Amino acid sequence: MEIFIYLILTAIWWVISLSVLLPFLVLLLISETVKDKWLTFIFLKVCGPRFGPKFVPLRKQLFKLLEEHLSKRNKSVPLKMLEIGVGGGANLQFYPENSSLTALDKTPPTLFDKNRKKFPHVNLDGIVVNYAEDMKEVPSGVFDVVVSTHVLCSVTSVDSVMKEVKRVLKPGGKFLFLEHVAFSKTQASYYIIQLFATPLWAIYFDGCFLNRNIADSIKKAGFRDVHCDHTYIPFLPLFFRPHISGIATL
Asked: Which residues touch 181 (CB under 8 Å, ≥6 apart)?
């Protein structure tokens, strides 16, 4: 029953978008100003308050996994961290003690700069405004950990990001990830709905693609070891319920 409801809702969304909302859709495609204002509204006023608190347990569990992998770490030595797509800094509260962070985002992370002051256990090394596919300002082989949460869905090339992540990590470094992904091909009906919604979703949500198999991209990137859990999150809209989380070691 739920599948048919989502199928009908997505069809209605297409019809409305290509008729009543078509001028707005065009503005999202051609105007950076309109897109920025829309994204600020949708993420800060709608998605953030509605879904942000529900992701807290998942983020906490993810960083607990990191702590387990770093159990032999000398805590007197700063942990060099790079977070790509840092956004407002939703992960900062879970960072290990004595973390030294370089924050990367494709736009100046204004909200992050305000929020980071609440977490004195995280020292800020710097902010880099660039895309994760080409982190040319970031030196090679210097980071203990690279963090990515809900970022790889919207990059232009996951493979390019993986190459950059591997480049900036130290030997034995960790890549920590939490991402929404495509349904399995065995769940064909759900996957078809994702495919049906993805073109519109990508326009309304800043190039976010619902139908990416990110787990395969991480596993094929050449890490020495990949721990990846698949999770189905029932409190989310069907479009992005499937998630992966885990840690990859260089």
From this structure: 153, 212, 213, 214, 215, 242, 243, 244
pTM of the shown model: 0.94
Give buried/exposed letters for 153-166 (b at 16+ CB in 10 A, else e).
Answer: bbbeebeebbebbb
Give the integer Cα–Cα distance in Å for 203 and 8: 20
Euclidean distance between CA atoms 36 and 42, whole angstroms: 10
Could you list the pLDDT tens digit for every one of the 250 residues in the chain? 899 999 999 999 999 999 999 999 999 999 989 998 898 888 888 888 888 888 999 999 999 999 999 998 998 999 999 999 998 899 999 999 999 999 999 988 778 888 888 898 999 999 999 999 999 999 999 999 999 999 999 999 999 999 999 999 999 999 999 999 999 888 899 999 999 999 999 999 989 999 999 999 999 999 999 999 999 998 899 999 999 999 999 9
d(CA 29, CA 113): 28
CB-based burial of residue 234 (10 Å sphere; 0-12 exposed, 13-18 middle, 19+ buried)?
A: exposed
Give me 101's structure tokens.
Answer: 């962070």
Whole-angstrom distance, CA of residue 21 vs CA of residue 179: 29
Question: Where does residue 87 fall: left (phi above 0), alpha (psi -120 to 50 degrees), or beta otherwise?
Answer: left
- For 57-249, which CATH superfamily applies? Vaccinia Virus protein VP39 (3.40.50.150)
